[in-house]
Design goal:
16 helices, mainly alpha, DNA polymerase, domain 1, hpI Integrase, Chain A
């Protein structure tokens, strides 16, 4: 049934068949014009038909509807924020099956030339984050909606997974920084745990008293905390292997025991650290300025911990388990540049083997 007048407004009524083959009647009211009513019906039918002969915007609604049930709430919010801000405005009205590699290259060039509010170009890691979201959309269309040609695969990604230089603190720099929060027991304990365990900030903020096994010196990582749009959210760790036990050194357990003695009346499942990530980010910026140490981000404390483990001779598999990486390849790809170059050692060893063989032949 076409759009019809509904008092001073317009409405549309029509029948459609859902994905299970069931026929329904749809009645939508409150449109200002006939054109708006007809456009709403057209968009609705496109989504129900699940054909790729629909706009990018309509396909995104289907993509969001699926992803919202399959990833962490915080991850979904971040995904949607990036897509809505940096991808949707460029492709909103284009038919998804008609988007070409050339369209994508033009969009990439626009972003690579763009600047933020301070006039700085976007970082390579931020561009890579955007790139990953766009790739995920077209991979989804290819896998579940039979997109014949994936234009993003042909166009290629852009940006880099990590910056050229990973910023870390040495133990001496960390201790110098730690002195700036010595009068704030809660902040001091939080930074100690981040530096000496390598746990993620969300994992730290989700810790409860019941997560600590003082006898075995183990911290059980079972959840993550985030505050998004004023709402406190406890979710699963970032990866399945994020659920792990971290054994901590004696000195750190003694620090933690002393700290917990001052948590009067704390309940077993009550968060030990009541602040948020933004507070910790403020504290690290303030402490850096006061201590005069090199500038790093909060997440770099995790990198610093890993760097220390590598310098102590621990292998990627051991480090991956401690950090909660899903795959050991993640550890290798992220920290490979921190491992000592063994090429010369290998060449010298081969040279030694060759000489041993020659000497054996001459004897």
């Amino acid at each position: 049934m076409p759009a019809s007048k509904d008092g001073k407004m317009w409405r549309c009524q029509f029948y459609y068949t859902d994905w299970q083959g069931v026929r329904h009647k749809k009645n939508k009211r409150g449109f200002r014009t006939k054109g708006e009513a007809e456009e709403w019906e057209r968009n609705f039918r496109q989504q129900q038909e699940r054909s790729l002969n629909m706009t990018f915007e309509n396909f995104l609604k289907l993509y969001y509807e699926d992803m919202e049930h399959r990833i962490r709430k915080s991850s979904f919010i971040n995904k949607k924020y990036i897509i809505d801000l940096k991808i949707l405005p460029y492709f909103k009205n284009k038919i998804i099956s008609e988007i070409t590699p050339s369209d994508i290259r033009s969009w990439q060039n626009t972003l690579m030339s763009a600047t933020d509010k301070d006039g700085k170009k976007y970082s390579q890691t931020y561009l890579k984050t955007i790139s990953n979201q766009m790739a995920a959309i077209f991979n989804y269309a290819e896998q579940y909606y039979d997109l014949k040609r994936n234009p993003y695969r042909k166009a290629g990604s852009f940006g880099r997974s990590r910056s050229d230089e990973m910023k870390i603190w040495t133990k001496e720099e960390f201790e110098k920084f730690l002195d700036t929060v010595k009068d704030k027991p809660e902040s001091r304990m939080a930074f100690l745990l981040l530096f000496w365990t390598g746990m993620r900030i969300g994992e730290l903020l989700a810790l409860t008293y019941s997560d600590i096994d003082f006898d075995k010196r183990i911290i059980h990582i079972t959840k993550s905390f985030q505050r998004i749009k004023g709402e406190d959210m406890i979710s699963e760790p970032k990866t399945e292997r994020g659920k792990r036990d971290i054994t901590i050194p004696v000195f750190l357990m003694e620090e933690l025991e002393d700290y917990c003695k001052h948590l009067y009346g704390i309940l077993p499942n009550e968060r030990m650290f009541k602040f948020t990530k933004s507070y910790m980010e403020h504290e690290i910026r303030r402490g850096i300025k006061e201590a005069g140490v090199s500038e790093i981000h909060l997440h770099c404390l995790r990198h610093s911990h890993c760097s220390m483990l590598i310098s102590l001779g621990y292998q990627p598999l051991e480090i991956a388990k401690r950090l909660g990486h899903e795959k050991v390849e993640t550890t290798l790809n992220t920290y490979s540049h921190l491992y000592p170059n063994k090429q010369m050692e290998m060449a010298d060893r081969l040279d030694q083997v060759s000489k041993e063989d020659k000497n054996a032949g001459n004897s």
